[in-house]
Amino acid sequence: MINYDLGKIKAIVFDVDGVLSQDTIPLHPGGEPMRTANIKDGYAIQLAVKMGLRIAIMTGGDTQSVVKRYSHLGVADIYMKCAVKITTYREFTAKYSLADDEVMYMGDDIPDYEVMKQCGCPVCPADACTDIKEASIYVSNVCGGRGCARDVIEQVLRAQGKWLQTEKAFGW
Asked: Where on this chain does Mg(2+) bind (predicted)?
């Protein structure tokens, strides 16, 4: 369980590679990297959006399949080519007047480190690198791309009394 007042959380930000996608990337013959997507993560993301949580994606990558996948799930804030994620994070929180303690961030590697030190609730998948695990207040028992986003979203929605509480939960 996440040792944090999850009732405060208004936004959850996810990295893609190693968090929403597995940490290996098959390369398409045309050269475009291909990502995996976990179905249970997808269900939880679309439900979180329906229940009023602001979900954001911040990735250093630039693959249109990522934009298509997550915008289809209702994610409005998808930031691609984030060279320095802390800059994008600060723009995101300012845009929605979010305090750091209202934001959960899930990352897995060094490019996520600065954001994880800034946000109120830093979390990571089971297979994150050591520095990220040490910066996290919660390490999921699930690896990246295998349902770790579902793990943390479900905990937040349960803590807020929004998990399976309306008919919105029973459809896409």
From this structure: 15, 108
Find out whether 62 is annotated in a ligand binding site.
Answer: no
pTM of the complete model:
0.94
**What is the rounded distance in angstroms from the CA atom of residue 143 to the CA atom of residue 125?**
5
Tell me the Cα Rg of the chain: 15
Q: Provide the β-strand partners of residue 11.
A: 54, 103
Instruction: Identify the band that residue 25 occupies on the pLDDT scale cut at 50, 70 and 90.
Output: confident
Q: What letter represents residue 98's amino acid?
A: L
Neighbours of 172 (CB within 10 A): 10
Contact by Cβ (8 Å): 159, 6? yes
Lowest mean pLDDT among 32-46, 106-120, 135-149: 32-46
* Residue 109, annotated as binding a ligand: no
Do the annotations mark residue 100 as ligand-binding? no
